[in-house]
Amino acid sequence: MLIEFVNAPNKCFFGLDKGGSHSFTIPASVKHRLIDLFELSEGNLQTEIAFKIGQVFYPAEIRLGRVLNIRPHRLQDRKKTDVVKFQWAKFDNTKTMVRDKLDTLRLRILNGEINKSDFVRFRYVGDNIFELASSTIVALPNIFED
User: Fold this and answer.
1) For the stretch 69-92, what's the b/e string if a residue is b when 16 or more beta carbons lie within 10 angstroms of its beta carbon?
2) 42: helix, coil or strand?
3) Which of 133, 136, 109, 138 is nearest to 123 (CA)?
4) Of the candidates 87, 116, 92, 130, which has an alpha carbon nearest to the alpha carbon of residue 1?
């Protein structure tokens, strides 16, 4: 099953948000395929995965969450929505890898820039492993290659 998507890292990706989350929300276009693939449900909210860069593996988790829309004008209009996140806050070597590989982008975001041009590509390769590669709108070398 080919599952591939990109993410434009932001404060949460780098743990620069108030909660130090080191996470991001999976795009809606692949959310349901990942829920099915990893059998995420009320009884199985998260599963360990790995990010693969070259021949090195870094631990992370895929997590199912429920979000309640609290802004509708009428209480009966509130809806629960499923979100799927990748998270790695409890894995120090993964946090270090993200910081080291994307440090220039992290510093730009830390200085208030909103990232709209640099992306990390996630491609599912089986056995709970996602290969990572970087890309940008302007062609630059892949920083995840050694």
Assistant:
1) eeeeeeeeeeeeeeebbbbbeebe
2) coil
3) 133
4) 130
CATH 3.40.5 fits 4-136, yes or no: no
Strand partners, 7: 120
pTM value? 0.85
Each residue's pLDDT, cut to its tens digit, for the chain (146 residues) gives 689 999 999 999 999 999 999 999 999 999 999 999 999 999 999 999 999 998 999 999 999 998 766 665 666 666 778 899 999 999 999 999 999 999 999 999 999 999 988 999 999 999 999 999 887 654 444 555 55
Q: Which tokens in the block code for residue 55? A: 């021949």
